[in-house]
Amino acid sequence: MSPLFWQYVGIFSASLAAILIGLLLWRRRELRRMEAAECAAVVKAWGFDLLAKLLTAYSVGNYFGKDSVTRVVHEIIDEIRSGGLPAMLKKVGWKVVKGVFLTNAEDRKILADLLAATPPSLTVEPPAPLA
Hints:
This protein is mainly α. It has helices at residues 3-46, 49-60, 69-81, 85-101, 105-117. Among the domains are: 28-82, no CATH class; 85-113.
């Protein structure tokens, strides 16, 4: 067989390998995006609306523009800077209390014991100076 034949075989093999690797990487990306969409539904049910919006934008590949990943990241940063993080965590905490502790009698007893064990004053003492 001539060297030209083997050159064509090499070019064909390299092209086929590149296409198969590309398809494999494409499939992994699509699976990751489908999982992000499923995760967005779960996080939205728990009350993390901005995180669900971020995961939805990622799952559809919206990186720039209206309701994109970059805009949602800016919204999350603005929310944290403006002091909205405790409110978000409080909303999620109440969902956990309602969904877990208030549906089962044993869990209600555990919650009552935990609340009885905490001190009535939840003020935090400032740290002592290091001087």
